[in-house]
Design a protein that fits this description.
about 150 residues; two-stranded antiparallel sheet; 4 strands; globular; binds zinc ion
């Protein structure tokens, strides 16, 4: 039977995979297809990040069905790891620019993220950086967390 890794949540699945267009170029499991891909085709929101943010908002407002909570965490972990794998390949200056973008007030408003949530996300990014042994990036993220806290 066909074995594949879901490009959205990172789970290994067997059998028929689903096309992740327009979110990503890849394949995904039935659950991610149902939650993310179908939703993006209906709403026209073709950014996975935006979909995750929207679901985080629903979670904060207790409007997210329980069965979605676990997959949402898994997707955030997996996408965070991919982000770190990508950012580990770019220079520290580029990573700095990315984090600067995140810290700009208007970006924060657009994302509807509090400072605490940005710190939370950076901590996740830090953990992921350690996991993939991107120590330079990890040290850098740690500094950014400290500067945000002060
Ligand atoms: Zn999946």
């Amino acid at each position: 039977m066909n074995k594949f890794t879901c490009d959205i949540c990172g789970d290994t699945s067997y059998g028929h995979s689903h096309n992740t267009q327009p979110l990503l170029n890849g394949q995904c499991c039935a659950l991610c297809n149902m939650i993310f891909v179908t939703a993006s085709r209906i709403t026209g929101v073709d950014s996975l990040d935006e979909q995750i943010e929207y679901m985080m908002k629903m979670k904060d407002e207790d409007e997210l069905p329980d069965m979605f909570l676990e997959v949402l965490d898994r997707v955030r972990d997996y996408q965070g790891k991919i982000f770190l794998e990508e950012t580990a390949k770019i220079s520290i200056e580029d990573l700095n620019a990315k984090l600067d973008e995140l810290e700009e007030e208007k970006e924060i408003e657009k994302l509807n993220m509090s400072k605490e949530e940005i710190i939370y996300n950076l901590k996740k990014a830090f953990d992921n950086a350690i996991k993939i042994e991107a120590y330079e990036a990890a040290a850098f993220i740690k500094k950014r967390i400290e500067s945000l806290k002060s």
